């Protein structure tokens, strides 16, 4: 961590008379946390940069096994004090996320404004730690500042403003955006660059990237369910393409974030060959076979499933965005 970062945070904690005085303190839990608690049973949670302790306290009260991590000892003191007063337990860890080794994987990882206060030279280490800490079916919630207009300066004290596309790219391909929300603040001190957009992300592991062979299997299972002899049709085509009205434009839609999520942005039709090559290499699958499989899947005369107006009611591909969160 840079001396500038340390000096700024130590000065702020020395100035604060209590957790309420911290500029980043908040009374309500970070957006999406309450919804996550409603949707899944309590598990293990990691609050990185726990700050005033509000989110750690909320999750502990909801029954989660919470690890509160911060490089500032005072932040852990506030968090521990509030937990004691509330009669709940949190595990405090004084550490810098960029050189900390997670002892386990967590069902929920939360960053309420740590990344946007970080020196960019440490981004790679931060990203690696988050990905290592997050369980295969875990939830990752991030609060990050966005610019209110293109080219907006960050201000003398930061935080760094980064737009949505850059954030999604930063965590791709391992993570996939599930929900996104934003709130505008029009009038802030010039020290932090004036107004900003406060953005909230809810990410989950991208199963198409983590389990590519399983995605191919789900496509096969759907075709088999509809009695499509996909193996015979592909063998009959030999080294050529199967007969299909599913072109590269439709395949690019299948591979994009709105369906299978092989890419976090929809590839251009001319990029399909390269995307399939990479995907098949990661799945240990034959590229020619997978391309023909997808062409059958989107062909109205055969699979008639992943067509332009997708027929999700007859599909078995649970990794598809159109199905996986319903």
Could you walk me through the main structural features you see in this protein, from its secondary elements to its overall organization?
The chain is of the alpha/beta class. The chain has two domains: 3-205, Vaccinia Virus protein VP39 (Rossmann fold), CATH 3.40.50.150; 209-324. It is 37% helix and 17% strand. The chain has helices at 3-15, 33-39, 54-61, 73-86, 123-133, 164-171, 207-210, 212-225, 230-237, 248-255, 272-283, 287-297, 321-324; strands at residues 44-48, 65-70, 90-94, 106-112, 134-146, 175-185, 196-205. Strands 3-2-1-4-5-7-6 form a seven-stranded mixed beta sheet, sandwiched between helices. Helix 8 packs across helix 11 (272-283). The two termini are 42 Å apart.
Query: Element order, helices and strands?
Result: HHEHEHEEHEHEEHHHHHHH
CATH architecture of the largest domain: 3-Layer(aba) Sandwich
Strand line-up of the largest beta sheet = 3-2-1-4-5-7-6
Q: Provide the number of structural domains.
A: 2
Instruction: Please outline the major beta sheet.
Output: 7 strands, mixed
Helix content: 25-40%
Task: Count up the helices.
Answer: 13
Task: State the end-to-end distance.
Answer: 42 Å
Q: Which spans have pLDDT < 50 for at least 5 consecutive residues?
A: none
């Amino acid at each position: 961590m840079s001396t500038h970062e340390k000096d700024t945070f130590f000065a702020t904690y020395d100035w604060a008379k209590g957790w309420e005085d911290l500029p980043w303190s908040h009374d309500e839990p970070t957006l999406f946390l309450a919804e996550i608690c409603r949707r899944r049973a309590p598990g293990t949670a990691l609050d990185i940069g726990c700050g005033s302790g509000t989110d750690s306290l909320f999750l502990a009260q909801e029954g989660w096994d919470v690890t509160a991590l911060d490089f500032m000892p005072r932040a852990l003191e506030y968090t521990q004090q509030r937990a004691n007063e509330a009669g709940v337990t949190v595990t405090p860890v004084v550490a810098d996320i960029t050189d900390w080794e997670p002892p386990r994987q967590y069902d929920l990882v939360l960053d309420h404004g740590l990344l946007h206060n970080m020196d960019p030279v440490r981004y790679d280490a931060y990203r690696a730690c988050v990905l290592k800490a997050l369980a295969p079916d875990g939830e990752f919630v991030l609060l990050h500042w966005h610019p209110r207009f293109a080219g907006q300066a960050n201000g003398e004290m930061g935080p760094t403003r980064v737009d949505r596309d850059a954030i999604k790219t930063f965590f791709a391909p391992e993570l996939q955006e599930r929900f996104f929300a934003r709130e505008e603040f029009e009038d802030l001190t010039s020290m932090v660059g004036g107004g900003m957009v406060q953005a909230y992300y809810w990410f989950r592991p991208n199963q198409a990237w983590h389990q590519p062979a399983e995605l191919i299997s789900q496509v096969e299972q759907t075709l088999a369910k509809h009695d499509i002899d996909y193996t015979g049709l592909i063998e009959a085509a030999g080294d050529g393409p199967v007969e299909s009205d599913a072109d590269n434009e439709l395949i690019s839609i299948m591979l994009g974030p709105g369906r299978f999520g092989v890419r976090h942005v929809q590839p251009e039709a001319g990029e399909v060959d390269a995307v399939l090559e990479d995907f098949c290499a990661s799945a240990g699958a034959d590229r020619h076979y997978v391309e023909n499989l997808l062409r059958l899947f989107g062909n109205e005369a055969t699979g008639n499933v992943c067509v332009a107006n997708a027929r999700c009611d007859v599909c078995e591909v649970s990794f598809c965005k159109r199905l996986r969160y319903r």
